[in-house]
Specification:
By secondary structure, the chain is α+β, with helices and mostly antiparallel strands. It contains twelve helices and 14 strands. The protein folds into two domains: 196 residues, Gcn5-related N-acetyltransferase (GNAT) (Aminopeptidase, 3-Layer(aba) Sandwich), CATH 3.40.630; 148 residues, Aminopeptidase. A hairpin with a 2-residue loop joins strand 1 and strand 2.
């Protein structure tokens, strides 16, 4: 299966000083992989789910890696794309950023200082390919990131339609604040007392609670095995949603944790009581940006609320990192974290309209129909 079989052109499209290149998964060369990794080192922080160690496993038939290059071949940015024929219930042929169930952000990799170059070249390049697409759908972009600000700037200056499709507000936490004061302010006294009592009980039975991080390659490899086994033994394993329940998601988890650890952006944590591991958590942290990924706990000790005990220790860890803005990547209805983390980060889905005879009108018509349908359902 290839791009031509869908009627979507694949040639390089020049645009000013930069150019767009679409790479099919089977065509990725060793040089491309090296360039992808180099871009990750030089990119704006926070695009964890666009790194090769995560995104390469999501590329497959019907998907391609869109790369914006300088004339000298330096990668300025990359994003995985696919083609879709609907926007919700409405027929609409669009390019769309790849978004997997385990991919909590859709931010592309963009070399620092080249946000405008990337978006301008990407959008005008896709637009120039034709193929009937009327726009580009971009899921899960953090509203206040430099990447999203550059997108809004390019659309505003180029007089391009940029439609906000959806917004969700996720719990987040800012480092550099007093954990004790934050805990006292945001956790009801009765709940604080209950958690403290449970902590004393587990410490009396098993030993002191402590949060441990692993960083060495051998330790990380062992930690991956331990996490997968703990998660599989719990309710996620019974529900079939644990990472080890399928070869695909297990491979994704192994690749993501090992790749992030090699790049120094993995936070592999274990909450111990004495020598007994109660819970584990994998997070991403790059400079001033962090986000959650996966958490599990040993249900044999559920009477001690190990998941909440872990959350408290992670909150304290983040609080001790001045300037760190941490996105929980949790669902908006997750009460256990919403009550403790009172900051919010807005994650937006956008759709950019393409120019051209008929396409602009079609884009406007689809957006109008979408707004009218939502209004009729009381959704706006």
């Amino acid at each position: 299966m290839n791009m031509q079989s869908f009627g979507w052109p694949t040639e390089v499209v020049p645009n000013g000083a930069a150019q767009l290149r679409l790479i099919e998964p089977a065509s990725l060369t060793e040089a491309d992989q090296i360039a992808w990794d180099e871009l990750a080192w030089a990119s704006e922080p926070g695009a964890f789910f666009a790194h090769r160690w995560f995104l390469e496993l999501l590329l497959g038939p019907g998907r391609s890696l869109a790369v914006v290059e300088s004339p000298a071949g330096l990668w300025l940015g990359s994003i995985a794309l696919e083609r879709v024929d609907r926007l919700g219930r409405l027929p609409a042929r669009l390019w769309q950023g790849v978004k997997d169930a385990n991919q909590f952000l859709g931010s592309p990799l963009i070399r620092k200082g080249h946000g405008a170059d990337f978006w301008q070249t990407l959008v005008s390049g896709l637009e120039g390919l034709g193929g009937g697409a009327i726009g580009l759908y971009l899921p899960a972009l953090p509203e206040e990131s430099e990447t999203t600000k550059a997108l809004r700037h390019v659309c505003h200056c180029g007089d391009r339609p940029l439609e906000l499709i959806r917004t969700i507000n996720r719990a987040s936490h800012m480092g550099g604040q007093s954990f004790a004061a934050h805990f006292e302010k945001n956790m009801p006294a009765k709940r604080r007392s209950r958690l403290a009592s449970l902590a004393r009980q587990v410490e009396a039975e098993l030993g002191p609670l402590r949060l441990m991080q692993v960083t060495e390659k051998d330790e990380v490899s062992e930690w991956i095995e331990q996490f997968l086994a703990m998660e599989l033994a719990g309710w996620k394993g019974q529900a079939g949603s644990a990472m080890a329940c399928s070869a695909r998601t297990e491979h994704l988890f192994r690749s993501a944790v090992a790749g992030a650890a090699d790049q120094g952006v993995a936070l592999c944590l274990t909450l111990y009581a004495g020598d007994v591991p109660l819970a584990r958590s994998m997070q991403f942290i790059d400079g001033s940006v962090g986000c959650g990924f996966k958490t599990c706990y040993d249900e044999a000790y559920s009477r001690y609320a190990p998941g909440l005990q872990l959350l408290l220790h992670i909150t304290q860890y983040i609080s001790e990192q001045p300037g760190l803005h941490f996105d929980s990547c949790s669902t908006p209805d997750q009460d256990s974290i919403n009550g403790l983390w009172t900051d919010r980060v807005s994650i937006n889905d956008y759709c950019i309209g393409f120019r051209g005879f008929g396409r602009s009108q079609m884009f406007e018509a689809v957006m109008l129909l979408r707004r009218l349908w939502h209004r009729s359902k009381g959704l706006v």
